[in-house]
Amino acid sequence: MDYNFVIDMRGDRRYEYIAKRLINLGYEVFPYGGGGGKNTVDGVDLTDSASVGFGSSVNGINSKNFIAGNEINAANPENFSTENAVNAANYKNFGDAADFRNHGNSVADVADVVYIFPPSLRLIDSEAERLIDGATVFAFTQNASTADILSKKRIKFVNVFDEEGFACKNAMITADGALMLVAENTEIVFADMKILIIGFGRVGKALAKSFKALSCKVDVLTFDGSEYAAAPLLSDGQYRSFGDLRFDEYDAAINTVPARLINKHIAARFKEDVFLLELASEPGGFDREALKKSGVNFVRATGLPAKAAPVSAGKILLESIAAHLNIRV
Predict the structure, then answer these.
(1) Domains of the chain listed by start with CATH number
(2) Helix, strand or coil for residue 329?
(3) Rounded distance, CA 257 to CA 204, Å?
(4) Which contacts (CB < 8 Å, 24+ apart) does range 21-29 have?
(5) Coil, strand, or helix at residue 293?
(6) Residue-wise DSSP of 156-213
(7) Tell me: the pLDDT tens digits for 268-295?
(8) Of 305, 314, 15, which is closest to residue 173 (Cα–Cα)?
């Protein structure tokens, strides 16, 4: 199967890796995000016709047709900010960047189009309307009305971020990033540390495995019955309530639960030099405003895989995408 990839380059550095890898494999890659994103990946200029075919034709379709109204010379990134052109920082225009319908061509005349959106951007109705009929979209989430639009347009929507295989590999990279942050924010070796992990899902398990491998003492606090039952396999202590914890023993506490659990009163019970790490998505578990005022050593590190190991994180994301497209990467 022949594919053209339209990649929103306003995502994190995983998308740089994905773009570069697909280019090296010979695929047509059309970046979006000129004003708010990135068009160069490790020296490879995504706006260079020699790199990705801008200025050349794709089965008779000039690559400039990926841009709405032909108003942008795709080989000139400066034109992303010109008047009457697509506002590259405006997400609603993303769909027009690969909309062949404006140019009198049918989907059957071109290679299959694949959109890759970063997880930080939610696909909504106005963007879905602009996508090519019959395309494939990799994104994080959508609402019911957007799903209906995609269905009518015969667009395949794939959320790889919730797939078990991807999520487990991503959790291991998250754990590696957490290890680095804990090492940077404490003054003792791992073998002398006692760590509290709040939540024991995929990330919690990955954290426990990684810290135990470095001879840390690891306690788990979880309010989920099945997680609590599994916790003894990878931890030294298991708890169901904050009231059972000995707060002054922990050198670091890591939250993985996306629910506001740790208010200022609970946080104040930890010892003075504790390191508190937030890994959960919004709303997070720690009362961030209270912690800022208290002066405690606190770091919020959501999206850690892309920050700690963007190449490895990009590799597992691309592998998950490739599996759906039945291509080798």
Answers:
(1) 3-158 (3.40.50), 165-308 (3.40.50.720)
(2) coil
(3) 9
(4) 21/314, 21/315, 21/318, 21/329, 22/318, 22/329, 23/51, 23/52, 25/329, 27/3, 28/3, 28/4, 28/52, 28/53, 28/58, 28/63, 28/111, 29/4, 29/5
(5) helix
(6) EEE-GGGSHHHHHHHHHHHHHHHHHHHHHT-SS-GGG-EEEEE--SHHHHHHHHHHHH
(7) 999 999 999 999 999 999 999 889 888 8
(8) 305
